Amino acid sequence: MASAAYNGLTDDQLLEGVQQVTFQYFWDFAHPVSGLTREGYTHAPDICTTGGTGMGLMAVVVGANRGFVTRAQAADRVLQMLTFLDESATQAQMLGRASLIAHETAHMWFGDLVTMNWFDDVWTKEVFANFMAAKIVHPSFPEVDHELRFLLAHHPTAYGVDRTEGANPIRQALPNLREAGTLYGAIIYQKAPVIMRQLELLVGEDPFRDGMREYLQTFAFGNATWPALVEILDRNSPEDLRAWSDVWVEEPGRPTVWAELQPGGDGTVASLTLRQADPAGEGRVWAWRS
User: Fold this and answer.
1) Among 1, 59, 193, 280, which lies 20 to 30 A Cα-Cα from 212?
2) Is the pLDDT assigned to residue 283 strictly greater than 60?
3) What is this structure's pTM?
4) Are 252 and 269 in contact (CB under 8 A)?
């Protein structure tokens, strides 16, 4: 599918609009509680690779947050870094580029402002960055079925691994830093985003946002752990989030789920009940909300 125009905007105008939305979102969401000041500046060379672009983007964001450049100037600078998207760029390429910008911007708060205490929580900065990027970018692509796209990109791969006997939990102990690369895989990149969505559904969008702000304020310019965030969210939720985290994050596996249908009269459905069981026979319960 070509990307000639969306809602009357050219490709460059759409990308520039995404930049403005990205910076404004984080300015509103995190800046008031981040403790950042408008002092100093930073700089990084432009490297036209995925990772290098991320480094450059983060440098521009720091400059904007600390007053070295305005947000409008930062948005223009980011747009210049993305000139390798030509007129033939597809919708998928544009969505991917916009997601990259939002993802790397999010790392200034999730990964930099608040850093994981150790690599057993390295997954948190990635899942937070993707989670926030989706909230920022998706409204700019209203014609895309984002729910279907998320389902196809995450659920089959995550469940394909998680239902096997060799599956690992999302949060894994790492006694030796040399083995950090073994942590990455479908469980972190596909299952973790699924459980993050579930967490927001369980807690509620507004309490979840408030909890994330408290998390950033509490641990700004320091280190934090996943249990610390769960504790913050648990205080304002009727759900037992510690028990939820134990089964979804700290342990591998997934439940066996089936539906029980009770037919009514005239071909109607009287009731439809979803039930679950622990395939390992340990009596675990996976709380979720749809």
Assistant:
1) 59
2) yes
3) 0.76
4) no
